[in-house]
Design brief:
about 150 residues; 2 domains; six-stranded antiparallel β-sheet; 6 strands; about 30% helix
Length: about 150
C-alpha cells in the first residue's frame, strides 16, 4: 500500500454500495454491513483473491468507537499497554474520511492517498459540536454525563 491508495464512495445503487479502497494489488470493500471484504493479489485468471484474515477480538465491544478509543488511550497511559488504534491510524482514517467526502462532493471522482491537497477539511455540522442530532436537538451536559461511560454508580 506504499504506492498510494484509491477510494470511491458509491452513493447510488451499484453492484457494490458503500466504500471501496484499493491499491495496485489490494481491495478493501465495505458494503454497509458488519464485515469488510479484504482482497490481496490476483489469481491466474486475474480475479482478486479474497483474504480470510483473523483479527484480534475488540476489547470493549459494548462501547462505540469514540469511547473505546478513549478507554484504550487511558489503558495505555495507566498500564503501558499498546493502544488499540494508534494516532497514526486515526490520522489515516481521518484522511480517508476527508477523501471520501470530497470524492462524493466532486461527483464520485477517485482520489489518491495520501491527499496532495492538505487544505481539504471535514467539519461536523454545527449541531454536532454540542452533541446534537439531525433533529436539531442539542444534548445537555446532564444527558452527556448520564452516558454509561461517565455514569457514577
Amino acid at each position: 500500500m506504499s504506492t498510494g491508495i484509491e477510494t470511491t464512495v458509491y452513493g447510488e445503487p451499484t453492484p457494490h454500495r458503500g466504500v471501496d479502497v484499493w491499491t495496485e494489488d489490494s481491495l478493501l470493500r465495505w458494503d454497509w454491513g458488519d464485515v469488510m471484504d479484504i482482497y490481496q493479489g490476483f489469481d491466474d485468471n486475474g480475479a482478486r483473491i479474497k483474504s480470510d484474515r483473523q483479527f484480534t477480538p475488540f476489547a470493549w465491544p459494548k462501547y462505540g468507537y469514540l469511547a473505546s478509543s478513549i478507554l484504550s488511550f487511558i489503558s495505555a497511559v495507566e498500564n503501558g499497554t499498546e493502544m488499540a488504534i494508534s494516532g497514526y491510524d486515526l490520522l489515516r482514517s481521518l484522511e480517508a474520511a476527508v477523501a471520501a467526502k470530497h470524492s462524493a462532493l466532486w461527483g464520485s471522482v477517485p482520489l489518491s492517498l495520501p491527499l496532495e491537497d492538505r487544505s481539504l477539511t471535514l467539519y461536523p455540522r454545527p449541531y454536532r459540536w454540542l452533541g446534537g442530532d439531525q433533529s436539531g436537538r442539542y444534548q445537555t451536559p446532564d444527558e452527556a454525563r448520564a452516558y454509561e461511560l461517565f455514569a457514577k454508580g
